[in-house]
Amino acid sequence: MDAAERAAKIFIRRYEALNEEYLEIIGERIRAIGRVSPTDLYRLERLRDIGADMEKLKRKLASETGKSLKELEKLLRQAADAAMKPYDGLMNAEPYLRNEIAEAMAAAQYIETARAMVNLSNTTVSSASYQGLVDRAVSAVQLGTESYQSAIRSVLRGAAWDGLCVIDNTRKVRYASGLTRRLDTAARQNVLDGFRALMQRTRDEAGKAFGADGVEISAHMLCAEDHLPYQGRQFSLEEFERLNETLRRPIAKGIWNCSHVAEPILLGISEPAYTEEELAEYRRSSLEQVTIDGKTQSRYQWTQEQRRIETAIRREKDVAIAAKAAGDKNMELVAVKELLGLTGYIRSDLLELTEKPKTNTGGAV
Question: How high is the mean pLDDT of the chain?
Answer without folding.
Answer: 81
